[in-house]
Write a structure and sequence with these properties.
Elements: E1 11-17, H1 24-32, E2 40-46, E3 55-59, E4 62-66, H2 68-71, E5 74-78
Antiparallel strand pairs: 1-2, 1-5, 2-3, 3-4
């Protein structure tokens, strides 16, 4: 499963990130924020408009907004 499909309030571990699917600037920002395999992540909420973009995820004490295309590059293992 990928991150954009995770239900709000649910946690999982990052299994893999397809860095090649992301623009270099996005990949650099996400790495700096702690997006790495093995990290526990939880879905805070999905956007309220049509495409449900952006999504808000929590890593540690941070809540970070991501576009669905960014979240789709993150594969998860169930926590």
């Amino acid at each position: 499963m990928t991150l954009e499909k995770l239900k709000p309030g649910t946690s999982a571990r990052i299994a893999r990130i397809d860095w090649d699917a992301l623009p270099p600037a996005d990949a650099k920002r996400m790495r700096a924020l702690g997006f790495e395999p093995g990290v526990e992540i939880s879905m805070a909420h999905h956007g309220v408009f049509g495409g449900r973009d952006p999504v808000a995820v929590s890593i540690g004490r941070m809540t970070i907004a991501l576009r669905k295309v960014q979240a789709a590059a993150i594969s998860l293992d169930a926590a």
